[in-house]
Design goal:
The N and C termini lie far apart (44 Å). Strand 8, helix 9 and strand 9 form a beta-alpha-beta unit. By secondary structure, this protein is an alpha/beta fold. Helices cover 41% and strands 14% of the residues.
């Protein structure tokens, strides 16, 4: 299990919370290690882990993480209060800094498990789950949700949801500013088709000033982040953080007030640290470097030569080579194409 030794401290309470969203198949522990090299203060989230996977599956496989990742939150998927309580307790035992409940995922597979966005229709059940978790852990218990489900546009719906769940002990709500359409749209379309309505999230902060309200959805520039922070307490960034990870290198200065790091942060330095990490993970757990390298393919996003660099790191014909040799080949291709 993890310990809290040598952790990255959370930002000062008055600082905004800037986080990288939980993203299935993407924000695993290797991705989070990479993101932590780029930002000391950003709050990182796991992929959603279902209560069933923890209560009936391989707990270390789902909960093991690197001590360097702190602050890091565990996102749970589930609806049964007793199961959520047991899973939250496991999360605390393994050293996570926050437990988050997924009430925002619209996929039909998740709906069949009776969790995700469909839970917004049952606020009292969500409240019962939140209370069950708060009763057994000392960590913050937070909820990530949408502004509505299907095509209903009533602000009262999300206001009442937040009001009910907050009474159970949740003090932080991360709000994706789109509805979740439970039928007819893929998860990808659900991130793009329902319109963004930031004003509803801003209204939540106005109506619940005592709560921490974070906003998510369609935010991909520093200017947009600062504009949202005029209205809410924090911003969660999703796919832009994954596809353009170098943006994270400016977050500590732009959003948390850090002076520029003493050691000049460079893509080359980050890549070298990741290669060292690949070697370590291979020695400790037999992890192939390709399982880690896939998360850093956006590191040179927008640079001349980046395509050739990505092709080397994506070439499974090279998987038998040590990662340091692959990095040398990638640099040679990058330089030749720059």
């Amino acid at each position: 299990m993890q310990t809290r030794e040598n952790t990255v401290l959370k930002p000062h309470p008055e600082m905004p919370v800037i986080s990288v969203a939980p993203m299935m198949d993407w924000t695993d522990k290797h991705c989070r290690y990479f993101h932590r090299l780029l930002s000391r203060h950003a709050l990182l989230y796991t992929e959603m882990v279902t209560t069933g996977a923890l209560l009936h599956g391989d707990v270390p496989r789902h909960l093991r993480f690197n001590a360097e990742e702190h602050p890091v939150a565990l996102q749970l998927g589930g609806s049964e209060p007793a199961d959520l309580a047991r899973a939250a307790r496991l999360g605390e035992e393994w050293g996570y800094d926050e437990i988050n409940l997924n009430c925002g995922c619209p996929s039909e597979r998740v709906q069949r498990g009776a969790f995700g966005a469909c839970l917004m229709a049952e606020p009292q059940l969500v409240a019962d789950g939140v209370k069950a978790m708060c009763d057994v852990v000392s960590l913050p218990v937070t909820v990530k949700h949408r502004i509505g489900i299907d095509k209903g546009e009533s602000y009262d719906f999300v206001r009442d949801f937040v009001g009910t769940v907050s009474e159970a002990g949740c003090q932080t709500f991360i709000v994706h500013a789109r509805n979740a359409w439970l039928k007819g749209l893929s998860p990808k379309e659900n991130r793009e088709v329902p319109p963004l309505r930031y004003e509803m999230v801003h209204q939540l902060k106005h109506d619940f000033p005592q709560l921490s309200i974070m906003i998510n959805g369609g935010i991909n520039t520093a200017e947009q982040v600062h504009a949202q922070l005029e209205h809410v307490d924090g911003v969660m960034i999703g796919r832009e953080a994954y596809h353009n990870p170098w943006w994270l290198a400016s977050w500590d200065t732009d959003f948390f007030g850090d002076a520029a790091p003493a050691e000049a942060l460079s893509r080359e330095h980050i890549e070298a640290q990741m290669v060292d990490y690949m070697a370590r993970e291979s020695a400790l757990h037999g992890t192939p470097w390709s399982a880690i390298a896939r998360h850093m393919l956006g590191l040179r996003h927008g640079l001349a030569g980046s395509r050739r660099w990505r092709q080397v790191w994506s070439d499974h014909k090279l998987k038998t080579l040590p990662p340091h040799e692959v990095m040398a080949l990638a640099h040679a291709e990058f330089q030749a194409a720059s």
